[in-house]
Structure formats: structure tokens, C-alpha cells
Amino acid sequence: MQTRNRKSCTRHANCVNVGRALSLLIAAAVWTGAACATSYAETVIGSPGAGFQSWKVGNLNNNGAPFWDAPTKSFGGYSGNQDSKDVGFCLTGTGDCVGVGSHASAPGPLPYWGMPYDSAADTGGAFDAKVYFRRGPFSHSLEATLELQFTTVPGEVNEIGWFETDANGSLVGTRHILFRGGGVPPGSATPDPVGKKVAFRPTPYFGYYFSDVSENGCLAYTLSGFNDPGGCTDHNFVVFSANPASLHSTYWIAAEDPPGCSDGDCNLTLMKIDH
Q1: Cα 211 to Cα 214: distance, rounded to the nearest angstrom
Q2: Are 23 and 133 part of one and the same domain?
Q3: Max avg pLDDT among 74-78, 86-90, 255-259
Q4: What is the CA radius of gyration of the chain?
Q5: pLDDT(24) > 60
Q6: Could you give the 3-state DSSP secondary structure of residue 48?
Q7: In this structure, are 77 and 113 located in the same domain?
Q8: pLDDT tens across 162-198, in order?
Q9: Which of 6, 122, 193, 232 could serve as a FRET partner for 143 with CA atoms 20 to 30 Å apart?
């Protein structure tokens, strides 16, 4: 009996050891898969409490909620395009968003990055002033497509690109142009055409910038605390995502001049970023 018990215990111990080994292998495989997926991902970093917020076409009423839902007010001396609307109307194809050689593509009401927003009540949705990106160490090059260049004044076409930063988003480093604008003074350069595609491989931490040629080329950043004080302090970016839960999300980056555009001199640049 004692011999049988020893054999039974030995067999039981072996089974337990094998089970533990299998569990460890499965856990390791899951961890490795997650680590590999993260290594190839591009993720958004923002302020505490911010995240991707959902909205619908019915929320587009120019009431400032979300923060980008504000009229462009392109009237007065710039009355050539009085029906122009904010970027939400452009994404959903419900407004006059025909820009310089604009595409007719309209991806719909994509989730946007910002503070909590109540779509049912149409309240909240404040701007996050600190937004930047982390590129996975093994991620492939990104591809930017210029989707829209809206301007109320011919020649005033924004330059847009990306900039280097650190893990804390505490600095604006070297800027890299993706799409050239109309130059300073406006019209002194030939802007890149809408539809152009550019492949780029950013640094591990990066953000986006644009140069507003209608404001003497002042610079605005997704880290808006670094915006040029000479005309760009109220300019901002909106980061939309076609699939925010995906590790390979497609982003639509809107550069606004600014939401509300009270001076009537309105520019809007929209580009798509794919993996």
C-alpha cells in the first residue's frame, strides 16, 4: 500500500508540475502577445481624466460642446464661404467644407480625444491642452494623407507636420514638415495638394504642429502650452480616431484656427494617419 501511495503521489506531483508548467507557458504567451502588440502600437497620451469621447451628428449645433463644435464665423470681408462649419461637419459631410482641392471623403462621427462628454445632454467635452503620442519600439512607418485644406482667403494654406518630444511631453523639439503650406507672406509658396501621402517614422514620443500662414506663420502644437504667443495662443488640434480600441488605430488630426474663428479669417487642415 505504501508503495502504491508513493507512486500515486509521484504521479500526482508530476501532473501538478505539468499543469503549473502549462499555466506558466500560457501566461507567458499571453504576456508576450500583449507586449508584442504594444511594441507595434501607437498610443495617445494626454491629461488625467481625458480619453476618447463619442458623439453623433445631432450634437453638431455650434454650441461649444464638444470644444471644437463652434462656428467658423467666416463672414464680413471673408464672405466667400459663409456656410463653412467646424470640423465635425467636415467629418460627417454635413457642411460646406470644400477646401483647396478637397477630397469628398467623410469618415463620420469619429470619437475624439478630450475631457468627458455627455452626448445625450450635449454637455462637457472640454479641450485637453496636453496631447502627444508614443510610438511602439518596433512599429512600422506611419503614413499621412492630406485630406482637407480649408481656407477663407486664397493662399492662406497651413503647413503641418510632426515634432519630437520626450516621455513627459515637457518640450517641443525638432519639427518635421509633412505638408507644405502657402508660405509667409501668404501665396509666396506652392502648397502641397490635397490627397498627397507621406510616409514618416517619428521618434518614440512625438506630437503634431501647424504653422498658420494667415497669422505670420505662428506655430501651434498638440502640446498647446508651447503655442506661439504671437497669434496662435487660441489655436488647437483635435485628435479623432477611427478605431480607438485598436492597437493599430487610424487617426484624423485636425488643426483649427481656432474653433469659433471670431476674426473670420479661418483655416482648417485635416490629415489622416495610418499604420
Answers
A1: 9
A2: no
A3: 86-90
A4: 24
A5: no
A6: coil
A7: yes
A8: 999 999 999 999 999 999 999 999 889 999 999 999 9
A9: 232
